[in-house]
Amino acid sequence: MTTTIGTPLNLSHLPTFGKRLRALRKYKGWTQEELADLAGVDKQTGYRYETDQMSPNLNNLMNIIQAFGENGSKLLATND
C-alpha cells in the first residue's frame, strides 16, 4: 500500500459517499481488495460502496474511516 505525499486532498466536489470513497482509495494507492480487507468486507461489497449501490453499516463505516486515518472524515463531509 502506498500513500501520496504532499498532494492536497479535496473531495468537496464529489457529491456521493461512493465517489469520495473511490477517490480517497485511489489517493492512498490502494486496490479495491485492499480497502475491502481493511473494512472487513468482500471485494464485491466494497465495489458496491464505491458505486453507491450500497451503503456501509456503522461498523464497516468506522473500519473504513479508521483505515484512512486523518483523511477518513473527508468521506462524510461534502465540504473540506
Brief digest:
The chain is mostly helical. The protein has a domain at 17-69: 434 Repressor (Amino-terminal Domain) (Orthogonal Bundle).
Can you describe this structure?
The protein is mostly helical and 80 residues long. The protein has helices spanning 17-28, 32-39, 43-50, 58-67. The radius of gyration is 11 Å and the shape is globular. The chain starts with 16 loop residues before the first helix and ends in a 13-residue tail after the last helix. The mean pLDDT is 86.
Question: Could you give the topology of this structure?
Answer:
Layout: H1 17-28, H2 32-39, H3 43-50, H4 58-67
Keywords summarizing the entry:
single chain, 80 residues, mainly alpha, 434 Repressor (Amino-terminal Domain), 4 helices, 48% helix
Q: State the separation between the terminal residues, measured CA to CA.
A: 25 Å
Output the structural class. mainly alpha
In round numbers, the mean pLDDT is: 86
Residue share in helix = 40-55%
Uncertain runs: none
Number of strands: 0
Biggest beta sheet summary:
none
Rg over CA atoms, rounded to whole Å, is 11 Å
Any idea what the CATH superfamily of the domain at 17-69 is called?
Answer: lambda repressor-like DNA-binding domains
Query: What do we call the CATH topology of the domain at 17-69?
Result: 434 Repressor (Amino-terminal Domain)
CATH class identity of the domain at 17-69 = Mainly Alpha
What count of helical segments does DSSP give?
Answer: 4
